[in-house]
User: Fold DUF485 domain-containing protein from Zoogloea dura.
Amino acid sequence: MSSTSSQSAVYARIRKNPRFTELVSRRQGFATLLSVIVLTIFYGFFMVVAFNPNLIGQRLSEGSYVTVGIAAELFMFIFFWGLTAVYVKRANGEFDEITSEIVRDAAKEVK
Assistant:
């Protein structure tokens, strides 16, 4: 059996594996959830800027140079970093384990 046909057989077995469909579905659902969270916060901030700019310009305390807008942006920066860390942790843990299992099963069946 040539290398190309062997690879094709492995890929075909991977695509037929029900765990592969589950992996794709779970990964897509998780990515969609995180995307919705990010876009909601991001565009929500811009809606506040557009429709209530006075709120963004308010200082956090008397005499402070830090405004609500700066604090909100700092929060968003840290929050988005946190979401990225959550995604990486899950991708490197749960998703990689399932992927390894699927590839291992497909390679066994071909040999």
